[in-house]
């Protein structure tokens, strides 16, 4: 492992020494590709799978999963205790939490699992301080709460983002709009639909040759960087929404709070005093993009207490049926829908129909 870490350190030093200009762009792209390959080896070591870290793998329950990421002693455990009513050990010294502590909250009818992860320290992506297990759990979350101390937020935010990005997590970003397909022969075929400031055929070929790919079709649909291309080739990047929680706002003035409120993806809170939790939960709901669908048994009123919760990307009647039970799709005849996704109340729809938030559905089966 030390050899991989030494190689990574050597490449990072060389990248820091190299000036950025047109002449060195190609050299930097090669270094970036090598760095990405070494990082991947760190995440998934060659050979047999090692044993899992004690207490890190938590069974996924509920409709969504949120991980609390932050440096030690920024108030992650206090926040979990006050939000979910779960006791996660709290003390005034660093590294109080040593394994993952799960909690669960119910919000707008959806069950949301909260994970209090141990504190991350600088160099976590290289395996320091159990950081690799922490970030591996963070990769399975649908949303990340980055808990920052309001007195030193920017410095911490930069370091944490660097650690998470080194592990293949991309925060508040969309997957690059680059089409990439390997083929057996025919060389590298590059299609460019808009002017590129960084990538040209030579750079693309050089990056691909680092991965020993010599035949591929690539389409760039926007002004992409070499990092974007490497992300697409690696294919193991995870794009997660992230909310920055600035904790301990009881220690700053009102004027500073007004400035903080203008930062995007950011919610100032006080975990200890339970300030601004309603704003946090509202923003959490917006970022999770969940849709509630209510069921209606024939001849009865809709059940508004236990909605079926779907993700906004998968809200067809088929997804709804699969969430209830796998066998329903085979017996499905049609569905009656009340709500904003249909013109008439109720309306008869097929299995392809896309539902909207808070629709009421009644499924009619084949006899």
From TrEMBL:
<dbReference type="Pfam" id="PF01926">
    <property type="entry name" value="MMR_HSR1"/>
</dbReference>
<dbReference type="InterPro" id="IPR045001">
    <property type="entry name" value="DRG"/>
</dbReference>
<dbReference type="GO" id="GO:0003924">
    <property type="term" value="F:GTPase activity"/>
</dbReference>
<dbReference type="InterPro" id="IPR031167">
    <property type="entry name" value="G_OBG"/>
</dbReference>
<keyword id="KW-0342">GTP-binding</keyword>
<keyword id="KW-0547">Nucleotide-binding</keyword>
<dbReference type="Pfam" id="PF02824">
    <property type="entry name" value="TGS"/>
</dbReference>
<dbReference type="InterPro" id="IPR006073">
    <property type="entry name" value="GTP-bd"/>
</dbReference>
<protein>
    <submittedName>
        <fullName>GTP-binding protein 128up</fullName>
    </submittedName>
</protein>
<dbReference type="InterPro" id="IPR004095">
    <property type="entry name" value="TGS"/>
</dbReference>
<dbReference type="InterPro" id="IPR031662">
    <property type="entry name" value="GTP-binding_2"/>
</dbReference>
<dbReference type="InterPro" id="IPR012675">
    <property type="entry name" value="Beta-grasp_dom_sf"/>
</dbReference>
<feature type="domain" description="OBG-type G">
    <location>
        <begin position="64"/>
        <end position="289"/>
    </location>
</feature>
<dbReference type="InterPro" id="IPR012676">
    <property type="entry name" value="TGS-like"/>
</dbReference>
<feature type="domain" description="TGS">
    <location>
        <begin position="289"/>
        <end position="365"/>
    </location>
</feature>
<dbReference type="InterPro" id="IPR005225">
    <property type="entry name" value="Small_GTP-bd"/>
</dbReference>
<dbReference type="Pfam" id="PF16897">
    <property type="entry name" value="MMR_HSR1_Xtn"/>
</dbReference>
<dbReference type="GO" id="GO:0005525">
    <property type="term" value="F:GTP binding"/>
</dbReference>
<dbReference type="InterPro" id="IPR006074">
    <property type="entry name" value="GTP1-OBG_CS"/>
</dbReference>
<dbReference type="InterPro" id="IPR027417">
    <property type="entry name" value="P-loop_NTPase"/>
</dbReference>
